[in-house]
Amino acid sequence: MELWAEDGELSFLAPPGVFTDSARTVLRAARAELLSLLEGGKRLAPALLIERGRVDDSSAEAPAGVRTMSFALSGPPDRVALEAALTELVARHEVLRTAYVRLRGFARLVHPPCPVTIVPGSQPPRPHASRPPLLTAALSDDHVLTLTVHAVAVDGMSLALLMEELGQLYAGAQLPQPPSAQLQVRRERAYLSSPEAQAAQRYWRQRLGDAPGLPLLAVPGSPESVPVEVPPSLARTVRARAAAAGTTPFTVLLAAFGRVLAKVTGASDMTVAVPIAHRWHADDERTVSGARDLLLLRLELDSGDPVALVHRERINAMEHGRLPFEVLLSDVNPPRAPGRHPVFGIQFALQGFGARLVPDLLDAQLAELPIAPLGEGMDCGLMLWDTPGGGYVGELACDGAAISGLEGVRRRYLELLADVF
């Protein structure tokens, strides 16, 4: 049962039969105490990730799953002003001062604003999801600022929003209050009971019900990775190919990745998971939260031009993409080898806001991207970020028992982009 305070009154949400007459009597007797607790900043409510069942022991209790960004500054910052700006970030966004604690399952305990202290060196304290703040900072003697945020609290878009606000707050700007992540939760609940959600479930059952896995990836190994750089000159070729096809660079980059994997594995039918920002309302664009989700694209690469195929598949998927991935899982369960992810084995991401990750702060230069590791049970993944110079940088990671020789895979990928297939 979820309990919250709204306009001085207690509100609740519970499955049928849970909120009994005896429970109602108990809550009425404790009404004043509960209102004081809830309105005092320590209210219990589910976050998006809890709502979708994504918070578990490994993600919430373990000091892991963090996103780290490092910035080379042109000189020493005003430490007092920088700490004040970081502290204000935590005060503005409740997800950064939230503890994820076990209360018959995981619950979300929002703490009052708390200070952020910059430690010396290059390694900030690793934030723990049960002990706010979920944002930590370090500053080295050579003026490299390193920020670490727990991944349970933010998606990629949130990182860009935080960095934009950090530069503004350091400069002394007064920013309007951001929308609460709780509004996203309520909108998602309303969507899940709508006819549109039911139609999306039917679409995904039909589209993915018989999707095969890659044929060579049955035995888990250890992840291997190589850096990938698409220089600005090659990126211009990609953008020109996309414009000629009436599509986006994302489509061209993914189509080339699919072609390379098809050549390496012999598979022409594969399901690719693409991370998306689960933001379907105008206010969500200004909300810091763990609103990331996955969009599944089934690539049947033997049925025509791969760029046109990926373009159509992406449009169709986005029309039904508001359905959360966890809901989709309950209906779609194609055959996969034991130890592998039950629905997909390939990940692809083009984070189109890489240039926004750099705060307007002492000519900051991004020194380290927040690249997420290849997920457990995954076969292969490619993550790319755009760069201020117009290129793309990132990482290619694959299960070593599945696809070896990543240097060759990377070379084939770049050659395919240059040939605009």
Question: What's this entry about, in short?
Answer:
34% of the residues lie in helices and 22% in strands. The chain has 421 residues and is of the alpha+beta class. This is Condensation domain-containing protein.
What key phrases describe this protein's structure?
six-stranded mixed β-sheet, Chloramphenicol Acetyltransferase, 15 strands, Condensation domain-containing protein, TubC_N, 421 residues, five-stranded mixed β-sheet, alpha+beta, 3 domains, CAT-like_dom_sf
Structure commentary:
- With 421 residues, the protein is α+β, with helices and mostly antiparallel strands.
- It has 3 domains: 2-40, no CATH class; 56-153, Chloramphenicol Acetyltransferase (2-Layer Sandwich), CATH 3.30.559; 198-419, Chloramphenicol Acetyltransferase.
- It is 34% helix and 22% strand.
- It is built from 13 helices and 15 strands.
- It has helices spanning 21-29, 31-39, 48-51, 57-61, 79-92, 156-170, 181-192, 195-208, 232-244, 249-265, 306-319, 325-329, 406-419, and strands at 2-6, 9-13, 66-72, 98-102, 106-110, 118-120, 135-139, 144-150, 223-230, 269-277, 292-300, 346-351, 365-368, 380-386, 392-399.
- The strands form 4 sheets. It has a 6-stranded mixed β-sheet.
- Helix 5 crosses helix 6 (156-170), helix 10 (249-265) packs across helix 11 (306-319) and helix 10 crosses helix 13 (406-419).
- The longest helix has 17 residues, at 249-265.
- The protein starts with a strand and ends with a helix.
- It comes from Allokutzneria multivorans.
- Residues 2-39 form the TubC N-terminal docking domain.
